[in-house]
Amino acid sequence: MGSPHAIIIPYPAQGHVIPLLALSHSLVAHGFKITFINSEFNHDRVVASLSKGGDGVEGIHMVSFPDGLAPGEDRNDLRKLTEGFVRVMPRCLEELIERMNTSGGDRVTCVIADGNMGWALEVAQKMGIRSAAFWPASTAVLALFLNIPNLIQDGIIDANGMPERSETFQLSPGMPPWNTSQFSWKCARDLEGERIIFKFITSNNQAMELAKTIICNSFYDLESPSFTLFPNLLPVGPLLTSQQIGKAVGHLWQVDTNCMSWLDEQPANSVIYVAFGSLAVFNQHQFQELALGLELSGHPFLWVVRRNLADGIDDAWLDGFRDRVKGQGKLVGWSPQQQVLAHPSIACFLSHCGWNSTLEGVKNGVPFLCWPYFADQFLNQTYICDVWKTGLSIDPDDRGFVPREQIKEKVDQIFLNEEMKARALMWKDIANRCIKEGGSSHKNFKSFVDSMKE
Ligand code: UDP
After folding, report:
1. What is the rounded CA–CA span in Å between residue 158 and residue 139?
2. Residue 106: what pLDDT?
3. 3-state secondary structure at position 9
4. How would DSSP label each residue in 209-258?
5. Could you identify which of 51, 122, 258, 381 might form a hypothetical disulfide with 370, taking C-beta atoms 3.0 to 4.6 angstroms apart as the criterion?
6. Which segments of the chain have a pLDDT < 50?
7. Structure pTM?
8. Of 2.40.50.140, 3.40.50.720, 3.30.360.10, 3.40.50.2000, which CATH number belongs to 258-366+368-416?
9. Does 5-245+437-453 carry CATH code 1.10.579.10?
10. What is the pLDDT of residue 52?
11. Could you tell me the distance, in angstroms and rounded to a whole number, from the CA of residue 362 to the centre of ligand 1?
12. Residue 51 has what pLDDT?
């Protein structure tokens, strides 16, 4: 028998491409050949950042599918994006598998799809190919999604996912509380969009039943009540590429690695790392206030100012700011975040609390300042602040605004909080034990690999 050959398909967004590439690398190390599917739009960006950075993706064959949107369309509009790829990608996948299986090359032996790409699991089923689902967000989010029929039955939401009233509830004791205003499908731009995303989630739930296994980027100790509720979910995380191959891959932006030598020059435990992932957007006023808050804090800071981090960045103002804080802060367009968080100079992480950023902070024992933007990020904040107790929340006022003084105050609090740092280090230790030989995630990963090879 030849090598196992897996087709791997992330949802076409940064926070999905990175962990699925990490998974791909782990599978290559276990003898798998990988065909990795990006949308054309993301493929071009991933390849551009790879070639400039000189990174290789050995053992991983990168392929692209159209996403059904026109070149200039807004891919941050999740409804549009979802409607687009669902229309065109299933046919592309069928054709690719047919081509691969008749060309005399490596037959496709399994499909591993993002749990948010249920259509791929349906294609695998139709073509008689074994499949698995990978869950890239917290297991608590998956538990919520899988509980949708109960939420409807209990009158918490209607059949379209709309909350019947404003309330906070728990799925089971020990799980973080949910507020009905913070459901992930509420991240669409209008009511119609929310309904469409909700429908998409319920159809993904059904598709996941076709998967032989559902693996999660998490670990037992981190979310044990969720795994008690759904014992069939298999945690294999935290999956991080930089730990496996010494560098992160799959970036949609050019990585500025110069910040690593800047970090080398900073004292241990002194730097605030500030990054809000790939999608969060600030308004101009808040963006500038954040900058002034960082300056006011007096601490060194490394701030990722993604090209589209604010709705219109005043370049002249930003240049002035950059000049003024030259001795204190460094601004980059996109950082090698996993390496940054592992650097001894990092003292805390001012974060939007995307799940990958959350896990990366946990894995490296870094306390958080939480400033969630949308979707599951509010739940991740609850985990950090109230369950694991490894961070503090930034609290916008009634107008949704955070003044610079609060930023300074919270930074001061986190720098002084030794207990929080100790707890963050405890979680780091647990996370590292889970992924070491003999650890729970490591064992789960091995049994997953075996089941995909059978
Ligand atoms: N990231 C990075 N450099 C940056 C900002 C983010 O490498 O400057 C990576 C980060 O390490 C994480 C991913 O981008 O793996 C963002 O995923 P997350 O789930 O945190 O947030 P999202 O972008 O989905 O909102």
Report:
1. 23
2. 87
3. strand
4. TTSSEEEESS-GGGGHHHHHH-TTEEE-----HHHHHSS----SS---TH
5. 381
6. 53-55
7. 0.97
8. 3.40.50.2000
9. no
10. 52
11. 14
12. 59
